[in-house]
């Protein structure tokens, strides 16, 4: 839903920026359509199995590189062994534009070369515990895009998974970037707000994409 007053761009921590309503309605629709395709294969979206036997409550599919705890590979050896779908050039462009806009610096996106995207689908009950994105060897920023239901995104600190943290409401179309001093900060999603997706998206649940540079040899 469009807010009566535009929600402002907010610097949550050094290098961590929330840009509400960054994606147009058309771009949100395009992203949902693309995610529907990617969810079907070559590697189907699934609940990631954790080494200790649990499964994540979100469902995930990856582009470029496949992530499973706690490494990137080209093939999804814990799913069907297939090579993941390629990382599309248009998402690289979105990533570069995202950095320029988040950091209000046209140079900030120059040379950004994300080579993996993790696409997480949250149903009404899904959450993500506090963690660092630390399987990448590159310290380039993570670009996070949300479409569908809004959620509470908890952005913490680089030292511990506990407080201090800031709870940010991420709504459909919002951009969140964490780089620089915040690149290795703990973060998580304690709650999704079911039924809050814009009706025009025809989406039940929340999709989040994180674009990252793995730093791995291509
Ligand atoms: O869903 C989100 O907003 C965050 C996802 C996330 O932290 C991750 O995929 O590592
Ligand atoms: Fe993460």
Automatic annotation (TrEMBL):
InterPro entries: Alkb (IPR004574), AlkB-like (IPR027450), AlkB-like_sf (IPR037151), Oxoglu/Fe-dep_dioxygenase_dom (IPR005123). Keywords: Dioxygenase, Iron, Metal-binding, Oxidoreductase. GO terms for molecular function: dioxygenase activity. Its cofactor is Fe(2+). Pfam families: 2OG-FeII_Oxy_2. Residues 113-215 form the Fe2OG dioxygenase domain. This is Alpha-ketoglutarate-dependent dioxygenase AlkB.
